[in-house]
């Protein structure tokens, strides 16, 4: 195995290592309660990470066994995967740029407005057709019931940093003026005209605010927060893959030159 192929083999091993954080970030996203209910967002990153791993393995084998055809296929497939990851990163950045967060006086947590998020997220995640499937999934989860285990008094709850999903789905909007009984039980609104969601709140554990626009906004807030974290890992992985790919292309050309030179030398001899 020539020097160039040795370099290519090492680079592909690095690419295999770079696929691990991609797969891990995809699994982390898929394990979140909100992503469990948004089926289309669960597995794309995991699948791409696995494909990067398999293509890198093919490149490693091609370099180790000096299979130029396999190396060429590796370079072609890796270029497609890097391009796909770049498209996903740019798309995720664009659709998560808008933020519907607003501060609530006297509360450590924040609340969320649906119209503050991108139209693509609103249409594809919280549209009427999608929400009919997402709503019962959220109601069956333990997202809201966990609050009763962590917070007892009103002061504890008001000073907590609950997730966007919990802020939107597990309690009524603060503007309604409901009185706190527990994190998921609220009574006697002082200002029920403040927000249409005030009339949608229900102390039934299967209802709560799952029909509220605040809940839809909270779900988008959760997705935005999680995808922003995952994007940091993906950016680092993509930078490594691009670096590996550029050097691998150069090594591949050098390997072809070495092979041509060896054939010429054998013919000359």
**Structural class based on helices, strands and sheet pairing:** mainly alpha
Order of helices and strands: HHHHEEHHHHHEEH
Binned, the helix content reads: 55-70%
**Can you tell me the overall shape?**
elongated
Mean pLDDT equals: 86
Low-confidence stretches: none
Number of helices: 10
Biggest beta sheet attributes = 2 strands, antiparallel
* Amino- and carboxy-terminal Cα gap: 21 Å
Kindly report the spatial arrangement of strands forming the biggest sheet: 1-2
Beta-strand content = under 5%
Number of strands: 4
The assembly state of the depicted protein chains is single chain
Rg over C-alpha atoms, rounded to the nearest angstrom: 26 Å
Task: Describe the structure using short key phrases.
single chain, 269 residues, mainly alpha, two-stranded antiparallel ribbon, two-stranded antiparallel sheet, 10 helices, 4 strands
Task: Please describe what this structure looks like.
Strands 1-2 form a two-stranded antiparallel ribbon. A two-stranded antiparallel ribbon has the order 3-4. The chain has helices at 3-31, 33-37, 44-64, 68-95, 119-125, 128-140, 145-150, 154-158, 164-169, 213-268; strands spanning 101-103, 110-112, 179-182, 185-187. Strand 1 and strand 2 (110-112) form a beta hairpin. The longest helix has 56 residues, at 213-268. It is built from ten helices and four strands. With 269 residues, it is mainly α. Helices cover 65% and strands 5% of the residues.
